[in-house]
């Protein structure tokens, strides 16, 4: 029996854990008090991850779909050979551009799969590369490319040192942070008022975070109006830090003039926030000794999500809070993904457009919302085959029925996934991968957003089932069968013809060793290398805080300045001002709710995480319920212009009147029995995917703020008493 320091790869917090291991099995997972960032915190998702490894519904050998829709086991060689033959036939007839790849959220903690699938898409030279980013984060990648010169150059809020934190559409007490990795984020935020600062949470719901601080309710999809109004108020009050702004950026006048036609009275109408409050928020933000504006999923799910993110960055820069303590800072990653992707020529924006809808590419990818039309619309480049890794896009992407029809229409659909889900039940093959703790790895995505810089790379600590394989190796084996090397690196295809294939750990190790903390291949004593980290039990702290005064070094623009002038944002502002937001037939605005024991759609099959009073339910303000004659526990129908679903109703004054909130990614199908038995409905059955509703700049889907109406179905079930599973709920584990 031995203790091994590992890390959690469920959410962006990437908390440190200690695994007690015996005979290749985990006996216990507990928080790592010595981890430099999480400092002894872990939530139920990470602590209960062994239940995922041991889930009886987990696939432990490849399966092939039969004509009647059932699945039967198949050998690895037989499956890979048939997949290779069918891919070669598709390519021979329709070209490589007819083959696509899909990447799901769990790959953000799976560097091998992440890099190999990116490499496969690049080697195919296909436009059909779809990732979960196109639901809620492409706006980040677009704004970073346009302003800072690289999609992955993303400043993070310095909560640990700020005097004023404005949080839009985020619930970090539950999410533990997104696009910023802060250990013990609840305590970090609580420290701000203790030192005389303020935290203001802007959200349609009095969330777990909002309850702890100042809460400003806002209508869903109103964030863009609030930001524009605050910027206008700051300019009108003469509070913009123009000297610092002009030192750091080009296009200053463009950014300041962008909001000239914004009417603050209309801002009040669109947000539900009094004009005086908007003006005061602008004043307080600009007057604080240091401040940061932080927006995440709730601010990234509207029709103007790229403009929203642009205005967030402009507010931070215009108030003098970019690259300064307590403002927006640049993290110090163990592996410089900005440099790595730049060398591999993968960053970019609008280098091509999608075939059917003409949406700009982002980081070489297309939006999932365009996927059904790319499959079902004939013509050159029509999508005919897909290889997907850990994606349940039929539930997590807009217009679920359209997604399922498209997946079922493919000539070949290969899914690498541990479960039989509502998405891959349409697959011809499901190939089971090793999971976290069964493979080596490091938190490839979140290490680029660490508030406390550290490095950690761990070996596998668990013996995987005999019939599963590392997914990067499976993708590479598929590529071998179509004479492809899954890499964008110059010369990779030539090397492949010579029998040389570079594993992903070698590529990452090279860039880490050449980085600012690397060992320079032995020339820098004490520097980092993969070997050193694998031999070190735990994380190595690289600094106490994120560095500041580094803007010039971190920018990838030719003149090393922030570029604020982009005509597409003036066009978006014009569209915003001219837009019509009322919908009398669907007067309530719907928004998503994050849950502490869920991570997108893939933890609903774990009994200990699904126990207690958990159900898919709509939250509604008492006034809206009374107006419609609805009562607590009643079954209701939610109707949008694009679909309708039925769920239970919870009446609560935590919700802003005129808005309704629904927890997303329920309503499962497939072979994961606990998830299917949990019932509920799919939020995205209400969500549109037509091109007119997408964010025109980033391709992000319109998920928050769609109009709905709610009516009774007739069956009332009482006070929200959901099915209780036999296994008791495991509460959050937290050590001081």
Write the topology of this structure.
Layout: E1 2-7, E2 16-22, E3 25-31, E4 41-42, H1 44-47, H2 49-53, E5 63-65, E6 71-73, H3 76-94, E7 99-103, H4 111-124, E8 129-131, H5 133-136, H6 138-148, E9 156-157, E10 164-168, H7 172-175, H8 185-194, E11 198-202, E12 214-216, H9 223-236, H10 242-248, E13 249-250, H11 252-257, H12 264-271, H13 275-287, E14 291-295, H14 305-318, E15 328-329, H15 337-343, E16 349-353, E17 360-362, H16 371-376, E18 385-389, H17 393-396, H18 400-409, E19 412-416, E20 429-431, E21 454-455, H19 471-480, H20 492-497, H21 504-514, H22 530-535, E22 540-541, H23 551-554, E23 562-563, H24 567-578, E24 588-593, H25 607-610, E25 617-620, H26 622-627, E26 634-639, E27 644-651, E28 659-663, H27 673-677, E29 707-716, E30 733-734
Parallel strand pairs: 7-8, 7-18, 10-11, 10-14, 11-12, 13-23, 18-19, 19-20, 24-28, 25-27
Antiparallel strand pairs: 1-2, 2-3, 4-30, 5-6, 5-20, 9-15, 16-17, 21-22, 24-29, 25-28, 26-27, 26-29
Helix pairs in contact: 3-19, 4-19, 6-14, 9-12, 9-13, 9-14
């Amino acid at each position: 029996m031995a203790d091994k320091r590992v890390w959690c790869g469920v959410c962006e917090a990437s908390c440190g854990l200690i695994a007690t291991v015996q005979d290749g099995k985990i006996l216990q997972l507990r928080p790592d008090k010595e981890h430099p960032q999480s400092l002894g915190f872990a939530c139920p998702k990470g602590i209960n991850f062994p239940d995922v490894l041991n889930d009886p519904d987990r696939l432990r050998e490849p399966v092939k779909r039969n004509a009647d829709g059932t699945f039967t086991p198949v050998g690895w060689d037989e499956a890979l050979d048939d997949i290779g033959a069918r891919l070669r036939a598709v390519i021979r007839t329709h070209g490589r551009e007819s083959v696509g790849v899909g990447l799901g959220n769990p790959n953000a903690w799976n560097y091998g799969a992440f890099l190999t699938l990116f490499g496969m898409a690049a080697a195919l030279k296909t436009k059909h590369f779809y990732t979960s980013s196109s639901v809620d984060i492409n706006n980040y990648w677009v704004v970073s490319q346009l302003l800072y010169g690289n999609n992955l150059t993303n400043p993070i809020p310095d909560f640990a040192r700020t005097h004023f934190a404005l949080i839009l559409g985020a619930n970090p007490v539950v999410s533990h942070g997104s696009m910023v990795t802060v250990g013990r984020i609840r305590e970090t935020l609580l420290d701000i008022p203790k030192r005389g600062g303020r935290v203001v949470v802007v959200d349609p719901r009095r969330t777990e975070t909002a309850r702890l601080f100042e809460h400003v309710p806002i209508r869903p999809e109103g964030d863009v109006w609030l930001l524009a109004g605050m910027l206008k108020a700051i300019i009108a009050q003469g509070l913009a830090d123009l000297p610092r702004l002009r030192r750091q950026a080009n296009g200053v006048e463009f950014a300041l003039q962008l909001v000239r036609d914004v009417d603050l009275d209309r801002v009040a109408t669109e947000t539900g926030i009094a004009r005086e409050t908007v003006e005061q928020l602008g004043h307080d933000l600009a007057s604080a000794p240091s401040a940061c504006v932080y927006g995440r999923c709730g601010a990234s799910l509207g029709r103007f999500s790229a403009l929203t993110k642009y205005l967030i960055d402009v507010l931070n820069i215009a108030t003098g809070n970019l690259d300064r303590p307590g403002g927006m800072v640049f993290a110090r990653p163990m592996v410089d993904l900005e440099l790595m992707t730049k060398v591999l020529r993968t960053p970019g924006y609008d280098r091509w457009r999608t075939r059917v809808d003409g949406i700009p590419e982002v980081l070489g990818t297309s939006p999932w919302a365009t996927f059904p039309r790319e499959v079902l619309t004939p013509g050159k480049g029509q999508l005919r085959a897909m290889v997907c890794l850990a994606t349940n896009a039929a539930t997590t992407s807009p217009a679920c029925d359209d997604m399922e029809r498209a997946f079922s229409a493919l000539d070949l659909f290969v899914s690498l996934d541990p479960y039989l889900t509502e998405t891959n039940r349409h697959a011809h093959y499901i190939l089971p991968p090793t999971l976290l703790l069964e493979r080596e790895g490091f938190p490839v995505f979140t290490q680029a957003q660490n508030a406390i810089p550290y490095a950690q790379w761990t070996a596998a600590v668990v013996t995987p089932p005999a019939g599963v394989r590392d997914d990067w190796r499976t993708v590479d084996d598929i590529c071998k069968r179509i004479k492809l090397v899954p890499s964008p690196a110059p010369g990779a295809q030539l090397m492949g013809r010579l029998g040389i294939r570079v594993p992903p750990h070698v590529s990452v190790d090279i860039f880490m060793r050449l980085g600012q903390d690397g060992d320079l291949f032995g020339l820098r004593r004490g520097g980092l290398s993969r070997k050193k980290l694998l031999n070190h039990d735990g994380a190595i702290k690289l600094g106490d805080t994120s560095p500041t005064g580094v803007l010039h070094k971190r920018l990838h623009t030719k003149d090393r300045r922030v570029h604020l002038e982009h005509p597409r944002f003036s066009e978006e502002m014009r569209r915003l001002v001219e837009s019509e937001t009322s919908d009398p037939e669907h007067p309530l605005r719907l928004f998503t709710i994050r849950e502490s024991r869920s991570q997108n759609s893939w933890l609903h099959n774990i009994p200990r995480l699904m126990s207690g009073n958990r159900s898919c339910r709509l939250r509604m303000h008492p006034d809206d319920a009374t107006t419609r004659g609805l009562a607590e526990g009643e079954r209701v129908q939610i109707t949008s212009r694009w679909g309708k679903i039925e769920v239970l109703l919870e009446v609560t004054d935590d919700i802003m009147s005129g808005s309704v909130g629904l927890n997303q990614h329920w309503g499962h199908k497939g072979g994961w029995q606990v998830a299917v038995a949990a019932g509920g409905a799919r939020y995205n059955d209400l969500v549109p995917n037509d091109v007119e509703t997408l964010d025109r700049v980033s391709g992000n889907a319109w998920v928050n703020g769609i109009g709905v109406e709610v009516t009774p179905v007739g069956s009332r079930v009482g006070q929200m008493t959901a099915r209780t599973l036999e296994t008791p709920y495991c509460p959050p584990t937290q050590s001081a």
